[in-house]
What does this fold into?
Amino acid sequence: MALFFFLKNGDTLSSLFLMTRRMGTDFETKMNDYLQGEKTRLEKELASFAHRNLKASETDYDTDFPNIGDKDDENASEVAQFSNNLSLEDELEKALRDVESALKRIEDGAYGTCKYCSQPINEKRLVARPTSSSCIQCKKTLTQEV
Ligand SMILES: [Zn+2]
It folds into this structure.
């Protein structure tokens, strides 16, 4: 997704790296634009089958029960679709929360800094996974522990 975004905007990855070496904030602006786009896309996708739970303190959606029809096979389809949508909702919600916390980190000036060791996160990692909040080394350590 990230790669596609940058290419679509007429940048090759290498020119992006050259540019960010000169101007750090431009990288953040690009990531911010990308993340805003992701947020809109995820919210739109969630809104197509779920509604936002406004009482929840953090981003939370409730999947709507589909209404296909009243026949037995239609009821079965509704249950199957509902169950599919529930797992999709879970997945999209997690992605949306990651995107929202990355946007928050840009706002706070903490974007691109590892939350565990406070070292800068490799830009290649950020381009590949714009919501990263930890460096590769810390991520590896954590994954080994789990
Ligand atoms: Zn780290």
